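Researcher: Let's try something more involved. This one mixes different molecule types, so please make sure each is placed in the same coordinate frame as the others.
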Amino acid sequence: MTQTTSLQDSPRSAERAADSRPLYRQLADQYRRAIGNGVLRPGDRMPSMRAFMQRHSVSLATATESYRVLERAALIDARPRAGYFVRVPPAAALPAAAEPDAADLALQPGAAQFVGIHSTISAIVSTYRRYPDALNLGGSTASPDLYPTAALQKTALRALRRQPTLLTAAGHDHGDPALRAVIARRVLEAGIQIGADDVIMTHGGIEAMNLALRAVTQPGDTVAVESPCFFGLLQALESLGLRALEIPASPSTGLAVEALAFALQTHPDIKAVVVVPHLQNPLGSVMPDAHKARLVELCSQAGIALIEDDPYRELVDAASSPRSLKAWDTDGTVIHCTSFNKTLAPGLRVGWINGGRWHARVGMLKFAQSRHNEPLAQVVLAEFLETSAYERHLRRLRDRLRIQRERMAAAIAASFPDGTRFTPPGGGMFFWIELPREVSSSAFFEAALLDGIRVMPGTVYSNAGRFDHFIRLSCPSTDIELADEAVRKLGRLATRMAAHAKTP
Amino acid sequence: MTQTTSLQDSPRSAERAADSRPLYRQLADQYRRAIGNGVLRPGDRMPSMRAFMQRHSVSLATATESYRVLERAALIDARPRAGYFVRVPPAAALPAAAEPDAADLALQPGAAQFVGIHSTISAIVSTYRRYPDALNLGGSTASPDLYPTAALQKTALRALRRQPTLLTAAGHDHGDPALRAVIARRVLEAGIQIGADDVIMTHGGIEAMNLALRAVTQPGDTVAVESPCFFGLLQALESLGLRALEIPASPSTGLAVEALAFALQTHPDIKAVVVVPHLQNPLGSVMPDAHKARLVELCSQAGIALIEDDPYRELVDAASSPRSLKAWDTDGTVIHCTSFNKTLAPGLRVGWINGGRWHARVGMLKFAQSRHNEPLAQVVLAEFLETSAYERHLRRLRDRLRIQRERMAAAIAASFPDGTRFTPPGGGMFFWIELPREVSSSAFFEAALLDGIRVMPGTVYSNAGRFDHFIRLSCPSTDIELADEAVRKLGRLATRMAAHAKTP
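Model: All components are placed in one shared frame. Result:
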């Protein structure tokens, strides 16, 4: 009888009788063994109480007691509304990533640079395109099976049947009125008080970001950004002829606000600050409320725009819904940009922007740049967001991403070499991993592709050449086994590369 | 017996017998009377031969002869593949619009100006928004009933059923591969030889135009444009901080190419020329091939970009398919921009661009600005364009627009005051009408709204204050009666305003 079978059937009466211990202990031991020898792996879901009772023909009292034993032994965890899961060994085996140091915090004036990241990114893209079959741990959206594919499809079919002219009638300036009204209601939970007219729909969050930058800067101006910084923002800055001033960010609390305060004193030419307050890409950091308040105050006092890029807020693992920077805005300093691309539907390019005191200019630029968005996607979204299905989906998505992150964290801790550091993110799907100093992320990126795995090298997250020994891993797939195996492969690769570098 | 009834039933045998003339003449006379007293109106479709034979219980020979009589009397016209229509009285009652004069052609250096059209347009938009019920003769897309609404709806439903993850899987960089391949095949008829990789999908033609301008200019640069010029282009120039140099355009042949040649000599700072070769908005002009060839040659020699904005090519009324400027391009001088917004589906924001020798830069800018387009609309388009349905739709659309234009031209000729001039457009839906000098188009615009009709005043088609006594009318609705009535109202208004202005 294999271990797997032993989990699916009840122990035979003869075996039960031969064992003098209480039945709940016998069952708990059986699961303990399964976890110990890897039949059940960290993050796996335990049977529901009901299933456990049926499978082993035991009472609720026995089932409850078995789970209590496993829980006390730190082998399984209860998760609210989700059930029990095999516990993931704490990732404390790896030290947390370094916090920005004092030298970083005291930036020297003159450090703002015109952005020139495009050729680096192009080289990376053209390299990984040569490996189309590589497992993608370098992406930034999850796979369709993490999203409510069937429900959205149904909503779209219904909308098309009900409104036959959805494809042939022109849409509304600034976007579908019903969607903008739903959005204005929904963002109350982020502490944002706006009306439908304060919402302009955009082609994804990236168009929102471009419009925000265009509204408040001229080519040659300086924009303060977090370091490390999402490479898409660096590309936008480059394409608009802007300079980036990289402000250090903490892997746990995000932008170092006091470093920004210092930079604002020494760089009077800063026209805007761009911040991802929740699950910063690539850090996964979440700004504490006190930092948010201070940041908004700083920018307001300096009279510059604070551009909030907030597409991951709803993926934060927290008891209560985090508040956006915009919640602290009293004078229109904050331009709020976000999208539904990461949280709901990567196939819909729907984002939105509130332009703060530059809202009218943002509206003009959006009209001049690309007119209104297509009606169909917006009608589907409006309908979906009106129901409780979106909230249910978000809870499920957060749960599934947490399981994936825990598995991945365990695999990283188990297989990467000494000298590797990372801080577990506060939600979402990114791991920002510091490799041993001697491992170049560019070389690692190329070697990983040869191993059939795509990662993002750290070089694209800075315009100033920082982070060459960092990589960003994402856990976008629900095929946990595959990702697990890939991470272990990457760990072995990093170990070999670190050892090789040390060999004289 | 009313005239209407007399058309639907056969003359009674007693009447036929009483009339000694041949039956085909009696029937022809009956229709002549119906046309004469307005029961049948210019542009109305005549019964098919088969319907005529059945209705009047006559032979094919009699039916054919009746139509021949009416045709010889210039009362009806045969249209290939469409049948017979009541002839529209030639609009020659009104003189053609003025051609650019010599003074216009010899532009003085230094005439390039930073564009500041936004406040003018905003004022117009906020004015007409106060009249939401006004009949819109100021729009630039036709109403959904001129487009294949049901067929596109069906295609979209099918695509969604077949590809459930259309909304939740991320799309392709540069756009859907199948669509880009269909486009590359289709544009062969425009004389454009490109592959799928040379096509980048955009959010409508306006995003394509923005990308083209961004690829070849820096803020402060000068761009040569046609005068009059589509206000959307002027808005794009303004939002990008560019200067416009307005080059005169002829109402029949478009851009005055020799005026451009002169401007290129006197303005060495021109970085790009933007031209709408087919059915220029608002002129409705179509460039002759010789002009196209010369224009491409000029730009190539000057080493500047020729940006071709070509969304109306397929609406040109011509025996053969017109060739785009890009067909004459041998060295990547021409950036080709177009969309399916005007020809197929105003509810789809799908355009595309070929960036000529700036193609890679255009691709980078598109990615940085808004990533890829949504997959759904592209999949629908690819499927629809693969079939013959698109060609059939275009033929029908051109026919219906022609009927509308003829009716509208007749109404304009019949009701506008002396001093009104216009050149019938070569297709599409725009009329560029020169009012008597003493009528201000801004005042006319406001007065027309009070009469329940929206028009576009000429002031928004120039950054240099030209065209104040011009208006653009469009014939976007299939409700011909309503449009007819509205045009007559506008004619009476213009007559009153012209008379009033002359009164001392």
